Amino acid sequence: xxxxxxxxxxxxxxxxxxxxxxxxxxxxxxxxxxxxxxxxxxxxxxxxxxxxxxxxxxxxxxxxxxxxxxxxxxxxxxxxxxxxxxxxxxxxxxxxxxxxxxxxxxxxxxxxxxxxxxxxxxxxxxxxxxxxxxxxxxxxxxxxxxxxxxxxxxxxxxxxxxxxxxxxxxxxxxxxxxxxxxxxxxxxxxxxxxxxxxxxxxxxxxxxxxxxxxxxxxx
Length: 219
Ligand SMILES: [Zn+2]
Ligand SMILES: [Zn+2]
Description:
The protein is of the alpha+beta class.
């Protein structure tokens, strides 16, 4: 990377693992058609670059930062998760300097935006474009807030939230694509099954990748 000046706010080190193209996590966000829902409906945007400190100990989510290319601030990635992750359709700004944080676009989102251009372009250019971007997370008295402690509940809530969205989506899908013959119960049951399995899977996946304690320094 061209900016070697980023320093870990916790340990002062600059030994980072880079999550940027072509890292699989980033590729997945760009190529997975499911991300269209996150980006265009929920307004969830993923920063182009995440830096993961290799010298700090602890779970991944305590070592993962979103760097600001304008002021060099390192924002703990976890502070912009949860409810702070949403309603950022146009991207996010740096809570320290207010400049835009470069974010990714999913290719299918871009396709949808291209096709629907006549619908959103006018309100966008006349109104939304001039609005300030939502910051990655709100500052508390000029300082980043203290992140909440992570407990078992965190993963359960994460899984339950994901499962609930999946339940709604799967239950409504047959009606949305038009081959539901009106049996809302059958549809709701398959949605519930999918939601529970998906929710447990997602909660486990998040814990596995973000929450496990890192053993020693090697990763
Ligand atoms: Zn560190
Ligand atoms: Zn900044």
